[in-house]
Design goal:
Layout (H helix, E strand, L loop, with lengths): L2 E14 L2 H18 L4 E8 L2 E8 L2 E12 L10 E9 L7 H20 L5 E11 L6 E5 L20 E3 L12 E7 H5 L7 E7 L1 H4 L9 H7 L1 E5 L3 H14 L17 E2 L4 H10 L16 H4 L7
Antiparallel strand pairs: 1-5, 1-6, 2-3, 3-4, 4-5, 6-10, 7-11, 8-9, 9-10, 11-12
Helix pairs in contact: 1-2
């Protein structure tokens, strides 16, 4: 069974102390994207004082969203709080199995970061979605968390799921925006509807609370986060039935380091995240002079991970 590993969505955040500075950067990002890519068009969907949402599309497909806003610094009891103005840059998806759209999404991300770095505008990664795409039917897969966090509830093996083509690992319901991370399996082919191949996706969503606590740029950080999950592929449904029955019976009694005794490792998909981490490190250092503007050819440092987007 073949599988690929990549980054699907990423959200960057710029924070400044002046509203005028916020608006200037916001307008410059819009100009940089519009002047570089003729196939992008955008419009404002919401505007009120320092709050604004501007969305870029191509052929009816959303590529990225720019959002501005503000919040007060520090804790509620601090009398010296001040307003921090932010600009959020959120990519709608980097891997949708449409070559033209995927390339435009990646080019747009690189273009925005190159503008920020060239103009010495600091930014942080605010959220990140890492995917493992398996070329197999959804029914032949399963995933569970092998290093459970305290206070988090998880779906058991035979517990009903809300959707037939999705398997949620954590139980977050409507509180998922307030958690550090969550993961699930789903039938990518069904969700997209226009993919001419069978794809089952495992997706790990690292959310703002995660990045406020951890430094994902530490080498091996993405690998360690994915390693907290067992992503399984079974060659037959009978293999799956037997393995999951054993896990349901004994999994809660076995320590993480002894899970191999259940024989699950023979079915485990182990992603290699080294190219993702290389890509992220190169991304945060890209500058405009490295781009062949206005045609926007991606430098060779990014072509090294092209298998993520082919």
């Amino acid at each position: 069974m073949n599988f690929t590993v990549g980054i699907d969505s990423i959200q960057l955040q710029v924070e400044v102390l002046e509203g005028e500075r916020q608006r200037a950067i916001f307008n410059d990002i819009k100009k940089a994207l519009s002047s570089t890519f003729s196939s992008l068009y955008g419009f404002e969907t919401y505007k009120k004082k320092n709050l604004s949402i501007y969305t870029f599309f191509t052929a009816g497909t959303r590529i990225l969203e720019l959002k501005t806003g503000g919040y007060l610094s520090g804790h509620h009891g601090n009398k010296n709080r001040y307003t921090i103005y932010y600009i959020s840059i959120e990519m709608a998806g980097l891997k949708r199995y449409d070559a033209t759209t995927d390339k435009l999404s990646l080019d747009s991300l690189v273009r925005v970061v190159a503008y920020l770095n060239t103009n010495m505008i600091g930014f942080n990664v605010n959220s990140l979605d890492v995917y493992v795409d398996m070329q197999c039917p959804f029914a032949f897969t399963y995933a569970f968390c092998n290093k459970k966090a305290s206070g988090v509830k998880y779906h058991s093996v035979y517990e009903p799921q809300p959707y037939a083509t999705s398997h949620y690992i954590e139980k977050y319901d409507h509180t998922h925006k307030r958690v550090m991370k969550r993961a699930y399996l789903y039938n990518k082919s069904v969700k997209e509807g226009n993919i001419n191949r069978i794809i089952t996706r495992f997706e790990l969503k690292l959310q703002p609370r995660f990045f406020s606590k951890f430094n994902y740029f530490a080498w091996g950080g993405l690998r360690d986060e994915l390693d907290r999950y067992h992503i399984l592929y079974f060659p037959t449904l009978q293999d799956k039935e037997i393995a999951l029955w054993q896990y349901a019976q004994y999994g809660h009694l076995i320590r993480r380091r002894d899970l191999y005794k259940l024989g699950l490792d023979r079915y485990r998909v182990i992603p290699d995240t080294s190219k993702l981490e290389d890509f992220l490190m190169e991304l945060i250092n890209i500058h405009e002079h490295e781009l062949n503007l206005p045609h926007m050819l991606i430098p060779s440092i990014f072509r090294g991970i092209s298998q993520m987007y082919d």
